[in-house]
Design a protein that fits this description.
With about 300 residues, the protein is mostly helical. The protein is about 70% helix and about 0% strand. It is built from 11 helices and 2 strands, in the order ααααααββααααα. Helix 2 (about 25-40) runs antiparallel to helix 3 (about 45-60) and helix 3 (about 45-60) runs antiparallel to helix 5.
């Protein structure tokens, strides 16, 4: 546990130093330090999420309190000139390292204690996850830092796409990259272009719908592939009935009518059907003629 404790403390110090020296945010530095030390020393489970929330909040509101509009346009414009900024890379990598190492520190400490949960909350065949009683291997730390680097790189590339892509319906493929810095900073130079907020909303909606359809298609095919013979036969019969139910229903109605006619149980015909077919339209026509006659007399 000492290894992850030292890694978490080092990442917390780097995060606090980056906030203070690179962004000059004293209040955010103090809040991050308080919640980070509480997560390590007092084992607050809410410490790591609080650090992440503080970092995200102070990115938009440097003064912590929302006294001024968020500087989202400044963030987009700042990314317009440089794809990778050192302060963003440093703070993101240090925050991710602190988050992972702190949760692993909590996991190691809990795995070293007896599993004393009530029996009602434990499955009969469940086995507690026990970490091997050996020090942290070097490969585990290397994989941790490699995952952090991959996550930071993926986040920067995603941010690049979010700030650069724009919907343009004048092109055959209605998605393109920004051409000028003024458009990237959020200032429209062409009246026919969509606003940046609407463009990003359309892109997000398209990505979500495409991912949802892809997942539905994958799970649908997977459910078909794991069917047994009886389930597949039932699905085929259900589909056949749903497709040809009108053709199956019509001869059954005629057959039932013939049986009732043969047995003499058909209901007697009344005047209700004739009134609906003939009487009701004639009544409406007479009423319309009366209304038009009254209107003509008034003129």
């Amino acid at each position: 546990a000492r290894t992850y404790l030292l890694v978490s403390a080092a990442a917390l110090l780097v995060t606090a130093a980056g906030l203070y020296f690179l962004r000059n945010e004293l209040v955010a530095t103090a809040l991050v330090f308080v919640f980070g030390v509480g997560g390590l020393g007092l084992r607050w489970t809410s410490g790591p999420p609080a650090v992440v929330v503080i970092l995200c909040w102070t990115t938009f509101f440097p003064l912590v309190l929302p006294l001024s509009p968020p500087n989202s346009h400044q963030i987009v414009g700042r990314q317009a000139e440089f794809a990778f900024l050192f302060p963003d890379l440093l703070l993101t990598a240090s925050a991710l390292t602190y988050l992972i190492a702190t949760y692993r520190f909590h996991a190691v400490m809990r795995a070293g204690m007896p599993f004393d949960a009530p029996k009602d909350f434990i499955k009969p065949k469940a086995r507690p996850t026990v970490r091997p009683a050996v020090p942290v291997r070097d490969s585990e730390l290397w994989f941790l830092f490699a995952r952090v680097g991959a996550a930071v790189l993926a986040g920067q590339l995603l941010w690049r796409l979010v700030t650069k892509l724009k919907v343009d319906f004048r092109r055959p493929f209605p998605v393109r990259f920004f051409n000028s810095l003024t458009e990237e900073a959020g200032v429209l130079t062409d009246d026919e272009m969509l606003p940046n907020a609407l463009s990003r909303f359309l892109l997000a909606a398209g990505v979500i719908l495409s991912a949802t359809f892809g997942l539905w298609l994958v799970f649908w095919y997977w459910r078909l592939s794991v069917m047994n013979r009886d389930e597949a036969r039932a699905a085929c019969l259900d589909m056949e009935w749903a497709t040809a139910r009108r053709e199956f229903n019509r001869p059954e109605k005629w057959r039932g009518w013939m049986r009732k006619k043969t047995a003499g149980t058909l209901p007697k015909k009344g005047c209700g059907a004739w009134f609906l077919v003939i009487g009701l339209p004639l009544t409406l026509i007479v009423l319309v003629l009366i209304v038009f006659g009254c209107m003509g007399a008034l003129r």
